[in-house]
Amino acid sequence: MLSIICRFILVLLLLAGGSALAQPSESCGEAVSLCVSPPEAGMPLIEGGWVIGVRTDQTEHEGVRLAASNLAEDLTQISLQDDAPDGQAKPFAIIAGSLDRSPTIRSLIESGKLDSSEVEGVWEGFMQAVVEDPLPGIERALVIAGADQRGTIFGLYDLAERAGMSPWHYWADVPPHRQGTLYAAAGSRTDAPEVRYRGIFLNDEEPALGNWARDTFGGLNASFYEKVFDLVLRLKGNYVWPAMWGKAFYDDDPASGALAERMGVVMGTSHHEPLTRAHVEWSRYGEGPWNYDQNPEKLQEFWRGGMERLGEGEALVTIGMRGDGDEAMTEGTAIPLLERIVRDQRKIIAETTGRPAAETPQVWALYKEVQDYYDEGMEVPDDVTLLFADDNWGGIRRLPEEGAERPGGYGVYYHFDYVGGPRNYKWLNVTQIERTWQQMSLAWDRGVDRLWIVNVGDLKPMELPISFFLEQAWAPSEMSRERMDGYAERWAGRMFGGEHAAEIGALLEQSVKFNARRKPELLDAETFDLASGEWDEVALAYRKLAERADTLRTDISEERLAAYDQTVWFPIQAMSNLYDLYRAVAHNRADAEAGLASANKWAEAAEKAFERDKQLTDTYHEEIAGGKWDHMMSQTHIGYTYWQQPEQQAMPELVRVQTEAGRTQAKPNERGGKPSKASSAGRLVIGERPVAISAEAITCRVGGGGAAWSVLPNLGRRGDALGLSPDHGTAIPIKDAPTLTLPLEAERSGELTVRLLFLPAFDTDGAEGLRYAVGLGGGQPKVGGFDLRPDTPLWNEAVASYALPMDTVFEVERGRHDVEIKLLSPSLVLQEVQLFTGEPSPRYLGPPLVQLTKQRDC
């Protein structure tokens, strides 16, 4: 018998004068698209006081039955109803089932009513099809068939989101988009992920997420993880590394592991927690040192316990070993030792599962020094997934050689949050989706399709980048540059409806751009140049965003206000206020040094901003969503003096002065603030003052070496960036290299410095670094380059500044010249070009950008 999960509920009439219902985002002309008007040969999901039922077989996976129940509840909420059913019945149903568990689905296939050939045997594939006369008494059904358990789950949640239920319904308090009527168009559609494992890592979760979870659920237990798993599955993810700061997923609450198995989530452990054992478990149960040379028997016993506890649970098992506390093992650790550790771990895996080790999915994270061992020839079993990592700041360090396939495949471990040098970043979202897209597209193009996982810190407030990361991971081939460019607006539309989507999307893009170019934990009074007015400019620019967010807030409906405040309003207000704080401190110190009474006014402004930071945090904790998110914004972010966070917010030092009456204001110093003149007959004029032009503003672009120039929207620190497409990873000879030509006019003879501002990037082949060339006036180009290495001074400054400046110096004669810029490494991303004949601009962002008009064609 089929179990029936259904609701028959009266549809409430819209109140007169109420706002229009949000529309499903898809056109009704596509197969199985959702429509508010009856399509030809389609079927109703919500209509005339009735909500469709969702049917599954009793033999179905428990995770599928749970998702089916959730879909039924979602449709009830979408239908505007919260009352009892009205008793009506209609001959329509949603039938959901997995090919390996559902007799109903198999019967439909065998009778020729359902063609499952496109999803049969496809990992997590699903189909949605409108089927005529599927069962007695049912005229038409929307059949959701999955190739396996998660395929069916994803098919159910895909329909839920398209109908109007946000994956962020709990974690960002997004209400459903209400529909008085809803129909499914005829036809069938299929989908399946292109990356096998797609997930998130909860990390650095104290004090924010940890305290919130303890208040809300009593800890990071099964009740907590039920909410996490629901989000991940609705975002079409399937993999989780659980929180691990003093926590042990399986040990703290044994129900957590059972819950993951029931819901269909694949569990793992972080890069330094082998064989499912949390790091803290060693302090609870381990004996002796965490040193395999000295203590192999006890470590093997410890790891064996982890695999025995896992039993038949589904996991992607981490192997390998790092030092105690996620540190490198003793300096000079021999590669043979790591290879022995892995051999012994795989023996444990085989013995505890009763199967060859190769039949248990495993991953070895090439994180930090472990990558160096791999580069030096460390052998890794072919069936193990090699997990490459970024530099913890969004730049992928190494990728497989093109065509270097292996049975275990490759993965990438990425970061939206980090604890470590040059500075922690944990408070707000500082990761541009444009940067994520550029780096993960590079990984995809190089064959990384087994595992994508991202460190998301406290989970909130990373709602936007998490959504993007998992959506790109589902279908990297479909996330084109053009699709990425409109993502923030589409995401805002799904969260808040279409009316304000463009404005909200623009606010998110611009604010995160500002956050990325100097993370809040790295800001201080010295970040921007005060004398040239740069501090005033950047603070004003952020304040304008805050004012727009404030103004827009008055137009957001009451039911969506909590979601707006969490994801848009608070992050912008908080960061704008932080700019105001440090700007005031900068003015205070400068005016105090000059003996000006205005220093006291600035001291008061700084204190006011410091207090407002607390008030904003209190608003988030106590007022938004009725105080649901208390503790969530408690990561410290004011008063850093080195990489580690202060224990509490620390007011920057202020100075108060007593001065003669009348001396109240400093005379502004305009140095570096304005270029002499922007252009002359389409040429950049180089005079006494430095000038700068955004990369995308250079219109004379010629491709070469199999690559063309591609604008990367919003990726520059101030404008758009330029990269190459395709990024095939192969070095390009200088004679074939893609070239930008920048016309300029030198007002005087002398030394000219051409500074190229690149996005920090790595030679992912591990060869000789990344290369470019700059030429002047048709002369021989000068080749330059860099080879970033984490934890070096060059890397520290580059990631902190979100830019890597590279200088080329020429002797230039007065008059007209062309600067030619050639990219010899396709992975380079050019943000802007700065030129100067004397000292560089003292401004953090460089001299003001100029626009060239009437540039000649190439």
UniProtKB/TrEMBL annotation:
Task: State the UniProt keywords alphabetically.
Answer: Hydrolase, Signal
The answer to whether keyword Amino-acid biosynthesis applies is: no
Query: Pfam family example for this protein?
Result: Glyco_hydro_115
* Domain called Gylcosyl hydrolase 115 C-terminal: residue spans: 690-848
Q: Which Gene Ontology biological process is one annotated for this entry?
A: carbohydrate metabolic process
Which residues are the signal sequence here?
1-22
Task: Spell out the residue ranges making up region: Disordered.
Answer: 660-680
Question: Which superkingdom, per the lineage?
Answer: Bacteria
Which parts pass through the membrane?
A: none
| GO terms for MF | hydrolase activity
UniProt KW Repressor keyword = no
Q: What is this protein called?
A: Glycosyl hydrolase 115 family protein
